[in-house]
Amino acid sequence: MIVAAMLVLAAGVRLFGAWCWRFNLNLDSGVVALMAKHMAEGGSLPVFFYGQAYMGSLEPAVSAFFCKVFGVTGFAVNLGTVFFSLLLVLVVYFWARDIGGYKAGIASAVFCIIVGPEKYSNTLKTFDISSSLL
Predict the structure, then answer these.
(1) pTM value surpassing 0.90
(2) Distance from C-alpha of 126 to C-alpha of 134, rounded to nearest angstrom
(3) Burial code of 104-116, b = ≥16 C-beta within 10 A, e = fewer?
(4) In which region does residue 44 sit, left (phi positive, over 0), alpha (psi from -120 to 50) or beta (all else)?
(5) What CA–CA distance (Å, rounded) separates 3 from 43?
(6) In contact, 63 and 45? CB cutoff 8 Å
(7) Can you list the residues of the chain whose pLDDT is less than 50?
(8) What is the 3-state secondary structure (H, E, C) of the chain?
(9) Residue 48 forms beta bridges with which residues?
(10) Residue 13, CB-side half-sphere exposure with 13 Å CA sphere
(11) What pLDDT does residue 114 have?
(12) What CA–CA distance (Å, rounded) separates 104 from 15?
C-alpha cells in the first residue's frame, strides 16, 4: 500500500517536471525529441542516438509511443523519461529492500521521489541540501 502511494506521488512529481520542462531548449533533449518525432512518424528505429556511436534509443522509442498517443509535443517527449524514472523508483525500492529491509527500501525510494523541477535538467544549477543527499 505504501509503495503504491509512493509511486502515485512519484508519478505526480515527475509529470509536473515533464510539464515544467516541455519547452526545454537543451541540445540533448532536442536529440531525443527529434528521434521520437521521426519514430512516431513511422521512421526507422535507430540503434544509437543520432550522431553518436553509443547510448541506445530505448528512451526515444518510448517517447515516440507517447508522441503517437498525445501528439508530438515537448510534454509527450518527456513522458518517456517519466516512464523510466518511475521504473527507477521501483528498482531502487526493491534493491534497497533486499539489502537493508523494508524501511531501507522505503527510505531509498523516498530519496528518489523528493526532487524539484530544477533537478530534471541534466546539469545542476545550484547546490542545495537535496543535491548533497543524492
Answers:
(1) no
(2) 14
(3) ebeebbeebbebe
(4) beta
(5) 38
(6) no
(7) 122-126
(8) CHHHHHHHHHHHHHHHHHHHCCCCCCHHHHHHHHHHHHHHCCCCCCCECCCCCCCECHHHHHHHHHHHHHCCCHHHHHHHHHHHHHHHHHHHHHHHHHHHCHHHHHHHHHHHHCCCHHHHCCCCCCCCHHHHHC
(9) 56
(10) 20
(11) 80
(12) 25
Rounded Cα distance between 64 and 1, Å, is 32
Identity of residue 6: M
Question: Distance (Å, rounded) from C-alpha 100 to C-alpha 98?
Answer: 6
Look up cell 521504473; give the residue.
Answer: 87
